[in-house]
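Intended use. Records like the one below are meant for learning the mapping from a protein sequence to its folded structure. Do not use them to infer anything beyond what is encoded.
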Amino acid sequence: MTARKLILIRHGESTANVAAAEAEAAGAEAIAVPARDADVPLSALGRQQAEALRPRLAAELSELAGVGGAPVLLCSPYLRAVETARLALGAEAAVTIDERLRDRELGILDALTARGVEARLPQEAARRRWLGKFYYRPPGGEAWTDVALRLRSFLRDLTAGPGGSAVLFTHDAVVSLFLYVLLGWSERELDEFLRNRTVANASVTTLEREDDDGGGAGAAWRIGVFADVEHLSELGVPRTEHPGAARVSN
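Structure written out for the chain above:
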């Protein structure tokens, strides 16, 4: 991996984020998702959030280009991430899709609320409590460790721009697991960090490598900013969190 700086951007609020919040508030067992996970679009507010990213990213990309060269632009294949990238960068931007940046797959738990899992799949709920979210793999889905594995593969293949930087449009659990992989954290350390923090929609997280050892792991990396949404506040666009599955503990 040649990267020295990663700019991680969570997609704007999606229609499924809204539906999940409504289902949880109503005490429902199932979420009325509008499409399969890969095809869920941004909500109207999510589009505003993505557009609010544009001036911030334009300034950051201009600065990076002036220092060492334009960063490489990569994106999850899921529609909500692709729409965020297009609105934040412009349709003409050369963005590369990488399937390893997709959201965590929930398998049999997909479109169920926490109450729905307990009511409809009590054995799975018990198994998740026993294993913990970090290692629990729902049938047909992924554990957090599975996502970490594909991110390690992604990082091995990553060739950053001339200045050693890359902008990634992705999802909350993926942003969280980049911290786990690059900072060399344990399950407990990631859990403690996320306990009172959320990767907000359309937020910016940066990770920077402190030295030039070329290793790309462990103490060589540090957090620049985490889940920053100052660009939303500056333009008066409401922030949303919708944490979804991006929590290690139950």
